[in-house]
Amino acid sequence: MKLKKLIHTTLSGGNRIPVAVLGATGMVGQVFMWMLEKHLWFQVVTITAGSSRNGKTYGESTKWQLPVPFPESLKNLPFSTLEQVVDSPPPIVFSALPTEIAGKVEPQLAAAGVAVFSNASAMRGKGNVPILIPEVNPDDLDLIDHQEWKSGGFVVTNANCATTGLATALAPLRKFGIRDVFVSTYQSVSGAGYPGIPYMDISGNVVPFIENEEAKIRKELDAILHLDIQVFPFCVRVPVRFGHLETVWLDFKKTVSPDDIRESWAQFHCPVSLPSLPDTPILYLSDRGQPQPVLSFTGSPPGMTVFTGGLKKQGNRIGFTLLVNNIVKGAAGGSIANAELFVSKTIGESGCKVK
Ligand SMILES: NC(=O)c1ccc[n+]([C@@H]2O[C@H](COP(=O)([O-])OP(=O)(O)OC[C@H]3O[C@@H](n4cnc5c(N)ncnc54)[C@H](OP(=O)(O)O)[C@@H]3O)[C@@H](O)[C@H]2O)c1
Question: Whose CA is nearest to atom 47 of ligand 1?
Fold first, then answer.
């Protein structure tokens, strides 16, 4: 059965759509398992990880790293191999694979008729593969109709984690004519995966370089916001477990006040109501010294809000700070919201249509 019809039939029959999580044991994969355990529309039926997990179950083999409960009801799921998933895939696959593996497997799945929602950078922006954030560029989902696969399958990616926070905070400010963006990131160690960075390299230290990160921010921000802006990033790894903090200076074509910015953030919302998106995607915190990474797993749903703070004006430049949960909003949660956008467009429920 073709993908869209299958989704329609499954949900209208009162059932959840079967999904796979590829790379379920990693930092991003663990967030998928936590967020999907009780999801309204999706049910995890298949998981994969590295080959050393073959023959084991999720519960006995996963070293849980998140400050939220382990998904007990998924603990007996056995690991499948990637080949088994490609041979017999569920209609929707969430990918948290290392980029080099994603670049091989994701096209195979799309060719097999699967809707792939990926965190990896391998396919971002290639061959009409959108880099999607539902509240920022929902109409880019339509690009899937122009991808190469005739099976009905497709790939949708989410942005790099630091880009996701920045693009979300800038989206409601596009009307002021953003010209230049100067951003410095303070990125947590979970951004490097698990086991990630050696303790001796990061404990009591900061590392002022993250491979490929600045180039990703420059490239992806333009593509998501549909603007031609100059971006000047610096990316730094800091000894924090979760959450990327960013300090931002913006140059505008128009004269803008901090109150204009605060009001634009407060009024911003996604044009589509989706289960995993907060009503207020951007929350300004007026306490000086906020937002801090300890807030990463707060909000409703936890980890899906972009927090901003520290608004100030110098000349015609506006400065502020932002916090994005890199593995929730900036990764798995973003992918789940993208899949929800696709499903809501597919089932066309009233109130679920993209404006
Ligand atoms: N961490 C973030 O903040 C973040 C944010 C946005 C996007 N991303 C992207 O999301 C993806 C996952 O990132 P992560 O941080 O979750 O990485 P990670 O913690 O290293 O997890 C990687 C996952 O892939 C599995 N894997 C590794 N090698 C494999 C192989 N050869 N074949 C099959 N599976 C394999 C691992 O299984 P084992 O545990 O068995 O090794 C694990 O489940 C990456 O593409 C990353 O760039 C990450």
Answer: 120
